[in-house]
Amino acid sequence: MNEQFWSLWIWPFLTGVLVTVFSVLVLLQYIERRKLHQLYWFIGLAFYAIAAFFEAYSEYTMSWNPLIYRIYVVFAASLVGFLGLGTLHLIARKRIYSDIYLVVNIILLIIFFYGALTCELDYSALKPGITVGGNALGPSLSFPRVMSLFFNIPGTIFLLGGAILSIFRFLRKKEFLYRVYANVLIAVGTIVIAWAGAKARLGSTVGLYPAEMIGATLLFAGFITADTLEKGARKISRGLDRGGIEKDN
Question: Which pLDDT value is given to residue 200?
């Protein structure tokens, strides 16, 4: 199959639909339980969904609107930082660590948005689909494109590290083996997303869209397997049927 097949708009569109469902479930769970790690995950997933729909739109119209592209690059590059923030908040023994990382993420996001919205774009690289990546912002280590590294590297470390830590924690407890399987899915999904992003950053964007969809599917499957989203969805459904949302005991 050629490059044109892998850049069809349907790939990012399906990713956007899947991640939208995923993010809504996480948001509903946050509304019910008020756990900050769920809010941080929702933000990262919302960025993921928006970026995927922007990709689908660019493929469908066969053009990149410059403003949409500037916003897209920031969301696509920073989403892992917020997913990693959610995991750090969940596993860290002291909340101060995730609070510091939250402040760092917000400051970096403001700087990234400023740079992306004010820099000169390379319009020769502003082509629809997977040929773009972050190339239209300039060379790999130039500002603002270099800002993506400050989200991708620590975010991937926290997200992947949290999954691996959970695997080891639950591995010796037979009653929690389902959580081992869940975190294996989350770890593999994180690796797929990180691999696709690294390839795109290095200029090889073939297969980026399917990789995004596979990574999102694995993350979603991991959460479902862990039973957290399913339990939350069932509780929310029962609460709505009775005219209100139940509170945890």
Answer: 75
Torsion angle defined by CA atoms of residues 243, 41, 102 and 215, in that order, rounded to the nearest 10 degrees: -170
The widest CA-to-CA distance across the chain, in whole angstroms, is: 58
Q: Quick one: fold of 3-241?
A: Rhopdopsin 7-helix transmembrane proteins (1.20.1070)
Return the exposure string of 93-116: e unless at least 16 CB atoms fall within 10 Å of the residue's CB, then b: eeeeebeebbeebeebbeebbebb
pLDDT-based confidence at 247, cuts 50/70/90? very low
Q: In whole angstroms, how far apart are CA 112 and each of 157, 215, 246? A: 20, 24, 40
SS3 133: coil
Compute the distance between CA of residue 5 and CA of residue 211 in angstroms, rounded to an integer: 13
Average pLDDT, the chain: 86
Entry pTM: 0.85
Evaluate whether 190 touches 212 at the Cβ level (below 8 Å): no
